[in-house]
Amino acid sequence: MTDATAVSHVFDVDQQTFEADVLQASLTTPILVDFWATWCEPCKTLGPMLEKLAAEYNGAFRLGKVDVDTQQELAGMFGIRSVPTVVLVKDGQVLDGFAGALPLGQLREFLARHVQPLEAAESAETADEVVQESPEQAVHRLQQAIIAEPDKAELKLDLALALMRAGQIADAETGLAALPANLATDARAVRLRSELELAQALKDSPGLAELQQRVQADPGDWVARDQLGVHLLLQGDAETGLEQFLLILQKARDWNDGQAKKRLLAAFATLDNAELVGRYRRRMASLLF
Q1: Is the pTM of this model over 0.70?
Q2: How far apart are CA 265 and CA 49, in angstroms?
């Protein structure tokens, strides 16, 4: 790579720098992570194209390079089974990805779905300040869009996400189940599945006030504490909710077949706050290992 502009937007990633250079950095700038290997022939084709696009976008996204042979633990965290594999991290979460060396045209299409050139992003931010769409308005807009373009499967995933935001859990679950196979494993679909799993845990659950009273009366009421954590998480009090699961993990690690750990992992998959997720991942690991 000889383009000095491209160099400034391309960097190597390892286990020690991942949280700061990828997760934290993605809160302000999307990070495209390229998992590659020196022996991989398709990587030698894909890598230069990604670097070319990083230069063209001129800071609208950054390209992080992970050598899977030297960073096996990091590759394992992402479940990388083949190279090249590319994932897009945005707002502290994996948003999308693909495996294999795509042609340049398809790479541009992939980026266009998620990354705006800097000038366009600034215009979009100004527009967002003027018009803010409610979850119900989003549902209506997407339903109309699907009527107009019934074969555009991505709109169905967008609708399922909007239904979840609007509190229409059963409809969101139905929409998620009906997605085609190529979208069922999309990062957003995986996140929605985790959110629905948490929401289902509250079926026939008492209200928040009653759960709080039960936990206060009996701190070892793990059922109530578990449901309280889910309630708090879904209502936006993520940190207090995560604390409930951590306490169960600390005091009753094996309760209900290790449910506290499962709750924490599901919660991590739904949260946008990379700093919060990183902090509680470390606390969870300190209790488990």
Answers
A1: no
A2: 35
| 122 and 139 within one domain | no
pLDDT digits (tens, 9 = 90+) for 22-42: 998 998 899 999 999 999 999
**Alpha-carbon distance 225 to 209, whole Å?**
12
Catalytic residue among 43, 211, 249, 284: 43
Question: Token pair for residue 74?
Answer: 């990091």
Asked if 99 and 43 touch (Cβ cutoff 8 Å), the reply is: no
The total number of structural domains that make up the chain:
3
CATH of the domain at 189: 1.25.40
Residues 34, 67: Cα–Cα separation, whole Å: 8
Q: Which of 40, 46, 233, 264 is catalytic?
A: 40
The verdict on whether 40 is a catalytic residue reads: yes
Encode pLDDT of 160-199 as tens digits.
Answer: 888 887 878 889 889 988 888 877 777 778 778 888 888 8
Place of tokens 């931010």: 125
Q: What is the pLDDT of residues 57-111, one digit of tens each?
A: 888 999 999 999 999 989 988 888 889 999 999 888 888 888 888 888 888 888 8
Q: pLDDT band at 118, cuts 50/70/90?
A: low
Distance CA 258, CA 248 (A): 9
Q: Which of 169, 200, 231 is the last residue of a domain?
A: 200
Distance CA 227, CA 116 (A): 40
Q: Which structural domain range is residue 149 located in? A: 133-200
Task: Indicate if 140 and 159 belong to the same structural domain.
Answer: yes
Residues 91 and 11 in one domain: yes
Q: From CA 118, how far away is CA 248, in angstroms rounded?
A: 45
Here the CATH number for the domain that contains residue 28 is 3.40.30.10
